[in-house]
Amino acid sequence: MATLGNPTNTIEVLQKYHFNFQKKYGQNFLIDSNILENIIAAADINKEDCVLEIGPGIGTMTQYLCENAREVVAVEIDKKLIPILEQDTLAAYDNITIINEDILKVDINTLVQEKNNGRPIKVVANLPYYITTPIIMGLFESHVPLESITIMVQKEVAERMQVGPGTKDYGALSLAVQYYAKPQVKLTVPANCFMPRPNVDSAVIKLTRHKEPPVRVSDEKLMFDIIRASFNQRRKTLVNGLNNAAGLNIKKEDVLSALEKMGLPPAIRGEALTLEQFALLTDQLRKA
Q1: What are the angstrom distances between the C-alpha of 137 and each of 26, 59, 131, 172?
Q2: Are the C-beta atoms of 207 and 148 separated by less than 8 Å?
Q3: Which domains does the chain have, with CATH numbers?
Q4: How does DSSP classify residue 20?
Q5: What pLDDT does 25 receive?
Q6: Distance between CA 104 and CA 120 in Å, rounded?
Q7: Beta-strand relationship, 202-209 and 181-189
Q8: CB-side neighbour CA atoms (13 Å) of 252
Q9: Buried b / exposed e across 81-117, counting CB within 10 Å, b at 16+?
Q10: Inter-CA distances, 179 with 186, 213, 258, 278, Å
Q11: Is 142 helix (H, G, I), strand (E, B) or coil?
Q12: Are 202 and 220 in contact (CB under 8 A)?
């Protein structure tokens, strides 16, 4: 079994199995062992932990996780990678379960029940850009018992998760992440640490799950529908954005009245509201 995390061994494994990178899965494998060690440290993995890894690839980070955690469950969508993982790179470990499935279709709550007696797990992943938001939101909204999510994403996406109102990167993702967790960018990862080399730098961000959300709201789902509608058309005022949103059925006068009660100007845009203000707005509109 070759230890991965360097270019030579990675190329050897890829050639042995005649593996071709799939653009549709956004595959970029890490080839820097220092970065891998830093990710394990950032995720704070120890022998008590059950870790869910999303997108193990050829098992580069998975080897490090198996060495450090009690139990690892790796979910990989690309069936061409399964023989590499099972017969080669992870064959030496007895604390790994490999699942060939799309993570968005996996019942993670049942998995946590089986593998960790329903206790909170830690999630670690190197996520392609196009699927970052659905995966993070899926984990949070389905209320999977989670301690933290440590993920490698495009640098700008990591930055977007931790910014506040009034900045151009502030949006639905920033608000959702901050409602459920405390985001902290742990390290920046240059493009040359990957094979193939992506066009942009990445960052590792850790989302530590809040015990209690920082704001109280009467209807969580409605709040996120309102948040999404507010940012769907950023240039529009909040009143017009919500009034035009399909499926929300919110009247203009109700939004104006709610804003007035909150002491906010009628022409305000969604990007100016804090999480707390979105919670208040949701409660006002629900009453209306």
Answers
A1: 19, 25, 10, 11
A2: yes
A3: 7-209 (3.40.50.150), 220-287 (1.10.8.100)
A4: -
A5: 67
A6: 19
A7: antiparallel
A8: 5
A9: beebbeebbbeeeebbebeeeebeebebeebbeebbe
A10: 19, 6, 21, 11
A11: coil
A12: no
CA diameter of the chain: 67
- Report which residue type is found at 237: T
Report CA torsion sign: 126, 127, 129, 135. negative
Query: Which spans in the chain are helix H?
Result: 7-16, 33-43, 60-68, 82-84, 108-116, 132-141, 155-162, 172-180, 220-232, 238-244, 252-261, 275-287
Taking only the tens of pLDDT, the chain with its 288 residues reads 667 777 888 888 878 877 776 766 667 888 889 999 999 999 999 999 999 999 999 999 999 999 999 999 999 999 999 999 999 999 999 999 999 999 999 999 999 999 999 999 999 998 877 788 889 988 998 889 999 999 999 999 999 999 999 888 999 999 999 999 999 999 999 999 888 888 889 999 999 999 999 999 999 999 999 999 999 887 889 999 998 888 888 999 999 999 999 999 999 999 999 999 999 999 999 988
- Taken in order 209, 215, 217, 221, the sign of the CA dihedral is negative
DSSP-derived letter for residue 211 is S
Instruction: Check if the beta carbon of residue 94 is closer than 8 Å to that of residue 119.
Output: no
